[in-house]
């Protein structure tokens, strides 16, 4: 049996059937119930565990770290799609699409302890100062009810908690208070090729902060360059949320896997009283607690609130504003690539080491903020080429030599403006294995983002042509897709009529319920969201602790 076969067929570890001997009964006298064991939920649980009784409920399984090498093998075999690596799909993960664009939801998520960080790329940038004041400065979307300065100390703490390698060589980055915990990764060989072209064009390159170890950190080894960061890091050098899940458990927290929460119950005083969850043996349980933190991401969080409709909240829990599920945002991809007449040494690492934020703060009503990325993984890897062919020996070697090593490419992320018609609702006639309606995604992208993709493409193609590359593809407005960053569906606002949570991420309607997720983002910016998610989660942990302490 091969390693790829040893972890099943892509569905057996999804946690949809079969019983085991794990105790999944509710925890008595819980102070805090956290729904979701991804990065936000894990950080909140670790923050609150110790002096308080904390229980974490997650819909997916707890994956065995010993299977990661097998998952890596599965990831590079052409027979398997990306969702297969972490057992995503089937009735449990069903969803519907509607609206202008198809949204490939299951390509983007992992249901299980660790969440999306089990397969993320690991890029961790801070939002820019103007991202928090987009309405005032750029004329697009609302301002956040908090400013960069409010998150600045939490950003620094999040970088320490995750373990971020970075440098202070980006003149366009927001101000910071201390160096990154680890030095940045060295620029790649292809970065040096790009650097010459960018210098000719007056375009600045700088390092990229990564949530992976450039040196041993937090009892984890330095990155060893497997190159399969997406969808699996077999060495553990890249951060994932199991780090804080395990730390929370060591401090007394209880983590219950394969326990999808079907609804939240509340009393007449607008307090959540219990999370009702299912278990693989077919039982249903009620987890009571004093405080609840919903940390299910930008799709499952609004779905849970909408499924928790009651007589008091007929349109969904915490939804008196009517905005739960609305303003679904993602970052749009812009890219271009081709080949050079010389080696470019691609696929040695599975992440990028240089970027350009030079054009980010030019954003206004007509142009969205965007950043540029210089890829280290353009074109196929030799392993992928070998596994996808039917030749052997010298013909195989000749094909690999002809087809590998001369590719070069750039990417970029573009902000999507918030739009109430871009939203997550409940499907009318499709349910999951528990009979609950699946999420229905209506993804709408406006002209501002599409026009900005064209602007990013112009710069990318200009750099590639200056480099001397034969440009073979461009991912422009007609070929763009999501970066799989779900944001905006329970937006933050000081005004209860304009948002779902307040500046502390506590729901306006419920006194003991917080949301820790990118779903609270009023606008998305164009920076990868996980560091901001982590900073907000740490802030939520402090607010919950203060609320529990004074008995509000």
TrEMBL record:
Its cofactor is FAD. SUPFAM superfamilies: FAD-linked reductases, C-terminal domain, FAD/NAD(P)-binding domain. It comes from the Archaea. The keyword Flavoprotein applies. Signal peptide: none annotated. Residues 1-26 are annotated as: Disordered. It holds the Pfam family GMC_oxred_C. Residues 214-243 form the 4Fe-4S ferredoxin-type domain. The keyword Translocase does not apply. Keywords: FAD, Flavoprotein, Oxidoreductase. GO terms for molecular function: oxidoreductase activity. Belongs to the GMC oxidoreductase family. This is GMC family oxidoreductase. It comes from Halorubrum rutilum. The lineage of its organism: Archaea, Methanobacteriati, Methanobacteriota, Stenosarchaea group, Halobacteria.
